[in-house]
Amino acid sequence: MKLAFQLALRNLLGSGLRTGLNAGVLSFSFVLIIFFNGMLDGWNEQARRDGIAWEFGQGQLLHEAYDPQDPFSIQEGHGPVPRAQGTLVPILMRQASIYPEGRMLSVILKGIDPAQKTLKLPTRKLAVSRAEVPAIIGQRMAESAHLKVGDQVLLRWRDRHGTFDAGSATIVDVFDTDVSAVDNGQIWIDINQLWEMTGLTGQATLAVFDSEPDNPQVAGWTFKSKETLLQNITQIIEMKKSSGYILFILLLGIALLAIFDTQVLSIFRRQKEIGTYVALGMTRQQVVGLFTVEGGMYSLFALAAGALYGIPLFIYFANHGIGIPPASQNMGVALAERIFPVYGLMLVAGTMLVIVLASTLVSYLPARKIATMNPVNALKGKLQ
Questions:
Q1: Where are the transmembrane segments (predicted)?
Q2: Domain that holds residue 283
Q3: Quick check: is 299 in a domain?
Q4: Those residues with Cβ within 8 angstroms of residue 155's Cβ, 6 or more apart along the chain or in another chain
Q5: Residues with Cβ < 8 Å from 148, sequence gap 6 or more?
Q6: H/E element holding 366?
């Protein structure tokens, strides 16, 4: 085996430009696969972290009449605040309208405990304000409604009997979050004030767990675990990865096709050399192994070349992130302004293994022809 590696290395170095081109194309596929998957893994990790911190906590209890996919269920989807093991943050949701600059905007009015620390929302600002209806909104909501801290806006809502009421809400803080689900079209106020405004004292639409509960089941409420709530973002990431695999297969296929063609040409042109190896005492299988190792070593050259320019590139993006267009952050999923790729050991090692195995396999396929060659005819240079 040592002799095979030495001969293969000598032959590849002697090929010069041909070896460089094959290794270069293969290294490009290697770097691109790690870069794309690292970016998706970074997005997944960031989205899960932000989703837990801003929206889902360690799980939620949803009133059985409330369906997050059906806005019309908000009106009747509420009940007495559930009692369960651990700390729960109740949230009451009501449909409402605001009138900034004479325009009418439909919003979801959300009441939350100002003292809560489960979610990252800056609710403490609600407790210290002396305004009639202090409210906090997200950056996206502030931009769409043209509101800023200190602005007052007419707020209209319905009480428990369906009667319209109105008041003046004051924006006491505008928070910046990557989770658009707690931002777009939403106004957050003190839940005690919302209970008083609507007459729904002690009612909640959902409740957020501060820690993972051992027994979360409550009659009349549906428990959604943290993993279930994060399922949407997980499915989106998996879908993106699946579509990326098509590109990877094409790129890898082009690189492997180049290696395959090189091996076929090499066996065709080096028949005298093959006959000489057999005449010197090597078995046909040893010659097949030599050519297979030679083809497989393209992958090692590719990994070395990829590491040469890929590692600095990966370090740069891991430290500075990849900018995301602002329009993409309103898709409804947690997406930060910059995504910081994560290059895990499994990702790098798995990609390297695939590259090496695939290169070795496509090198072995044409090398099998050597086993059927007549060494005498090969030494004479007759085509076989």
A1: 20-40, 245-268, 339-365
A2: 1-53+232-380
A3: yes
A4: 96, 97, 98, 109, 133, 135, 166, 167, 168, 169, 187
A5: 142, 171, 174
A6: helix 345-367
Given this model, what pLDDT does residue 62 score?
94
Q: Is residue 218 part of a domain?
A: no
Dig out the tokens for 317 from the structure: 């993006």
Q: What is the DSSP string of 174-190?
A: EE--S-GGGTTTEEEEE
pLDDT along the chain (384 residues), means of 10: 74 78 85 88 87 92 92 91 84 94 91 94 90 92 92 92 91 92 92 94 94 84 91 80 79 82 80 80 83 85 90 91 71 72 88 89 83 71 64
Residue with tokens 């399922």: 231
| Residue-level pLDDT at 52 | 92
At 188, give phi and psi (nearest 5°): -105, 130
Q: Which residues of 347-372 are buried (b: 16+ CB within 10 A; e: fewer)?
A: bbeebbebbbebbbebbbebbebbee
Contact assessment for residue 50 and residue 336, using Cβ atoms and an 8 Å cutoff: yes
How far, in Å, CA of 255 to CA of 265, rounded? Answer: 16
Number of domains in the chain: 2
SS3 state at 124: helix
Reduced to 3 states, what is the DSSP secondary structure of residue 109? strand
pTM of the model: 0.75
Structure tokens at 69: 């996919």
The predicted structure's pLDDT at residue 374: 75
CB 364 within 8 A of CB 295: yes
Assess whether 171 and 295 both reside in one domain.
no
Which pLDDT belongs to residue 384? 61
* Residue at 222 is within a domain: no
Check residue 59 and give its pLDDT: 92
Tally helices (H) and strands (E) across the chain: 11, 13
